[in-house]
Every structure is written in C-alpha cells, then in structure tokens.
Write a structure and sequence with these properties.
about 20% strand; alpha/beta; 10 helices; 3-stranded antiparallel β-sheet; about 290 residues
C-alpha cells in the first residue's frame, strides 16, 4: 500500500482525491510522452510541491520516470500496453530482467521486442550508454529523453493492445540493421523452439533474429512446455535463455541439450523499487481493464 503522506493520517476522502489526481497525472504523461513540472502544475491546478510528491509516487510505481525539467511516461495502462499493471509471474520477470542486463555491456546495440519481460529489461537499461532499437512504443518511451541512449524506433502497423510496431515496414528496416544483441520474449517454448501468438509479430521477431549477432530469450518458467500459433525459431538459433529457478530439471536439460546457454535468475533478488502499488493500480484497472 502506498504511503501517500507520512506526516499525518489521511481521511478516506483525501486518499481518494490523491488517487484521482495521480490517475489524471498519469493520463497526462501517457498522452504527451513528456510533461514539464510547469505544465503539470498548470494542467492539474496544483502546487509545485504537490506535483513533485505525486511524481515521486508514480516513479516509485514504475509508470513514470523523472528527467531533466519534467517527467517521461514509463509504461502503464491504456493504449500502448498493460505494462503499468502487475503482470503474471511479475517477480520472476523482474529477476530475469535483472540477470539479463548483466549480460549486456556498455556501448552495445540492443534490439528489444515488446514483451512484458523485455520491458522490464528495458527499464533496467535506462541510463546506460547504449544504442537501443525497438518496435515497442512503451519501451521507446523509456529512452526517448535519455541523452546517453541512441534510440531507433521501428515503424509499421501499431497493435493497439500492446503498442508494438509490426508488419512489412518494420521487417524491411530490420533487414538493413545489425545489432549486437536481440532480446526476445516468448508466448511459449517447447522442444521445437520459440512460439508467438501473433503471426505478424512472429515474422517481425524472425527478422530480429536475423539482425542479431547474439540472441537472448527471456521467459519465466510458466512459458516452458507451451506452444502458440506460430513457431518463431528453433532452440538451436538462440544463444542464451534466461529463466527463473522454478524451471524444472527436465526443461533445464532440454534447453542445454538443444544448444543455448541457460541462466536461472534468483527471484528473491528481484528489485523492489519498481513494484507497482496496489492502491494506484486499482484505479487504472477500473479505467483500463486488461
């Protein structure tokens, strides 16, 4: 539960007022991508100190990120994905992301797809000196005002549910690029390989594989033993699989026998600071159901 004000006990009406104001603030940032402190003060009719306290809460929640002169959208409910809501197996995704960024060196060119686990990887890469290529609007929003990161956003048809660009335009641009590392998520992983539920997205991810010097797949243990609509790649085409410690011994053997290196993340070490707060998320769930 978010402690909105540590100096006094709040009345229920005051808590609701704060939640509504912060929901409006998040919608403002989401629509604009970036908002200055002065714009927030003017639009919401609040003091600068109130605006800064609200931004502190949203940043703690992981839906906004403070930057020079204002704040940028860092993912959330509504068009462009459901990243502000707590995803299934969230702790495992966080731990996997933490382990994945340890495999990425400064100066690399990193290609990120639009999965929820990949988004957590992107959040932990903010602030690092990298070139980032992505087909995900929520991921791109994390880096759009980051001076230390060169950002390339792939164009194409934008999925209204996930905010991911896909289709022939994205695939054509990918055919001209070479990246150090591609980081992919998965709808399912079987002995046959990596699966995705969206045909067009699977084609774009296949182009991402071809553009990469190295391919990392980030997938929590619940994804193993599952198939989906389209096969994206065989296991032998993947260099590194990162999952969590609940991955069964059978699947550990299956993965390593097929060729990829396997790393298991310790869920207990997942970062605490980015965890969504239930009270604020409940507002967004009512406004933007998953």
């Amino acid at each position: 539960m978010v402690n909105f004000n540590q100096n006094h006990t709040q009345e229920p009406g005051e808590i609701v007022q704060n939640l509504k104001r912060r929901s409006r603030l998040l919608d403002l940032i989401r629509v604009r991508g970036f908002a200055s402190i002065d714009e927030i003060v003017c639009e919401l009719g609040v003091s600068e100190s109130t605006a800064r306290r609200d931004l502190d809460v949203l940043e703690e929640q992981g839906t906004a990120r403070r930057t020079h002169g204002g704040v940028v959208y860092a993912g959330g409910s509504g068009p462009g994905g459901d990243f502000g809501q707590q995803p299934t197996h969230w702790a495992a995704k966080q731990a996997i992301a933490k382990r994945a960024v340890e495999e990425i060196a400064a100066g690399e060119t990193v290609l990120l797809d639009g999965g929820t686990t990949t988004y957590e990887v992107a959040r932990l890469l903010v602030g690092r000196s990298l070139q980032v290529v992505t087909n995900s609007l929520p991921v791109a929003n994390l880096f759009v005002s980051e001076l230390r990161t060169d950002l390339v956003l792939l164009g194409g048809y934008v999925s209204p549910r996930t905010g991911v660009c896909l289709g022939p335009y994205a695939n054509e641009l990918l055919g001209r690029l070479h990246v150090t590392t591609t980081v992919l998520s998965a709808a399912g992983i079987s002995a046959e390989g990596l699966f995705n539920a969206h045909l067009l997205l699977a084609e774009t991810e296949q182009a991402m594989l071809k553009a990469a010097g190295r391919v990392i797949v980030v997938a929590d243990s619940s994804k193993f033993g599952r198939k989906s609509l389209t096969l994206v790649a065989a296991l032998a085409e993947i260099d590194l699989v990162i999952s969590d410690g609940d991955l069964s011994a059978r699947w550990q053997q299956e993965i390593t026998a097929a060729g990829p290196k396997l790393l298991l993340a310790d869920v207990a070490e997942a970062p605490e600071s980015a965890r969504p707060h239930a009270a604020l998320n409940s507002v967004h769930r009512r406004s933007h159901p998953a």
